[in-house]
Amino acid sequence: MAQQQTARLQTYYREKIVPDLVAKFGYKSVMEVPRLTKITLNMGVSEAVADKKVMDHAVGDLTKIAGQKPVVTKSKKPIAGFKIREGLAIGCMVTLRGVQMYEFLDRFVTTGRKCRVCATSAAFPAGRSTAAATTTWV
Q1: With 0-12 CB in 10 A as exposed, 13-18 as middle and 19+ as buried, what is 88?
Q2: Which residue, of 26, 52, 99, 127, is most buried by count of CB atoms within 10 Å of its CB?
Q3: Domains of the chain by range and CATH?
């Protein structure tokens, strides 16, 4: 059976942070220590209503950022004021767990240390607008 590799940050968390938290807060078990279970990246693409290629670019950008292909989210209800029909692709999201989550977190923290504004590694060509991605840490 192949042994699964652990991320550098995950190893550091298990070996250094967990024992420190147990000692500091007096937990009786290591299972009481708070831990990260998943990171969700979400990108709303409102321009996709007018141009379908924008969604393809957003999926490609989020794939570069997260390291895995995102799921395209579709509208649940039609909204006439925004010209959105039911079932129209309006965004994309990806959920990271396990090793991929810790690898992304490691890259995110190191990039944040190097610059004040955390820029993504995706390069946006001239003429394309940049999109903001929302991250949720659970």
Answers
A1: middle
A2: 99
A3: 41-116+133-138 (3.30.1440.10)
What is the pLDDT at residue 26?
94
Is the four-CA dihedral 19, 21, 22, 24 of positive or negative sign?
positive
- Residue given tokens 């490609």 in the structure block: 60
Mean per-residue pLDDT pooled into runs of 10, the chain (138 residues): 75 94 94 93 80 85 90 84 78 92 88 55 51 74
Q: What is the pTM of this model?
A: 0.75
| CA-to-CA dists, residue 124 to 4, 75, 104, angstroms | 34, 26, 20
**Tokens representing 109?**
């923290």
